[in-house]
Predict the structure.
Amino acid sequence: MSDWDRKRVLVTGGAGFLGSHLCERLLLDGAEVLCVDNFFTGRRSNVAHLLDNPRFELMRHDVTFPLFVEVDEIYNLACPASPVHYQHDPVQTTKTSVHGAINMLGLAKRTGARILQASTSEVYGDPTIHPQTEDYWGNVNPIGVRSCYDEGKRCAETLFFDYHRQHGVEINVARIFNTYGPRMHPNDGRVVSNFIIQALQGEPLTMYGDGSQTRSFCYVDDLIEGFVRSMQSPAGFTGPVNLGNPSELTIRQLAETVIEISGSNSNFEKRPLPADDPNQRQPNISLAQSHLDWEPRISLEAGLTKTIGYFKHHH
Ligand code: NAD
Ligand code: UDP
C-alpha cells in the first residue's frame, strides 16, 4: 500500500486502556495512527511498544482545546472511564466530553472524516427496562455524583447527532458496556481490576452493597472488533449501537469466578454501595448483530484468564 492510499486515523484517548488496543489493531490493519492523549488516566507505557512503528505518532494534547490535523477517520475515546477517575475532577470530566466532542466534531466537519464516539451504557442510567435496547431513553440522575460522566456523554451524543443533521458529518455512536482486559489502570477502582489485584494479593475482594447488582462484561478484543466494524459500516449507519457482551452476572458471581480462576484463597469484604450505582445492566445487541454482523466471541473465563495473566506480570 502506498502512503497516499493509507488511511490516517486519529484516536483520542489513545494511550488509555481501550485506546491502546485500538491503536494496535489499526496499525495491524495498515493504517497511519495519530494517538492523542493528555495522559490523565492513560500511560505512555500502554503504547511504548508502538513507538518504533513509523506509521504511529503520539501527541500530548487535551481535547478540550481545538486540534488542527489532517485525518480520514476519528475515534473519539478521550474521557476518564472509571467512577473513581471521572469523579476526581467532575467539571473537567464534563468539559472533556462536551468541549472534546465539539472540537473533534469540528475537526471532522473540516476534514470530512467519519467520526466514532465512544459512548456508554451509562446513558441508560439505572435502567427501568431490561435488557437495554438503543431506543430506551434512560433513567439518569442529572445532579448526582455520576452525572458529570453520564450527562457529559449524553450531551456528546446530542452534539454528534446535531452535527450529523445540521452539517452532514458522518458519525457513528457506540454505546460501550463494561469492558475489561490487559492494560486496565490498576488504580482505577473498576471492579474487574480491583478483584483481580485483590485476589492475586490474597486480600479480601471489596464487594459494594450485597453484590446482587449485575453487569455484563465484554473482553477488550471483542469490543475493538465492534469499533472497527462500526467505523467500516455503510455511511448513514449512525447508531447508537450497543457494544457489549450480553452474558449478565451478579458482582458476587464475578468475585467467585475471579477467586476460582486465579486459584486465590481470598474471601469477600462488604463495602457500602456507591450513590446511584445501577442495579442491573445487560446489553441487547440485536442491532450490532444485524447491522455489523458482530457479537462477542470470548467467554468470561477465557478473558479473565488472559487478564489475570497480565496483572500477574504488571502489578
Ligand atoms: P481510560 O481512562 O483508560 O482511557 C481514557 C483516555 O482518555 C486516557 O488515556 C486519558 O488519559 C485520556 N483523556 C482523558 N481526558 C482527556 C482529555 N481532556 N484530552 C485528551 N485525552 C484525555 O478508559 P477506557 O476504559 O479506555 O475508556 C475509553 C473510552 O471508552 C472513554 O471515552 C470511556 O468513557 C468509554 N467507555 C469505556 C468503557 C469500559 O468499560 N472500558 C465503558 C463505556 C465507555
Ligand atoms: N464494585 C464492587 N467492588 C469494587 C469495585 C466495584 O463491588 O471494588 C461494583 C460497583 O459498585 C458496581 C460494579 O461493581 O456495581 C461495577 O463497577 P465499576 O466501577 O467497574 O463500573 P460501573 O459499571 O459501575 O461504571
Q: What stands out?
A: The domain at 8-182+218-245+282-297 is CATH 3.40.50.720 (Rossmann fold).
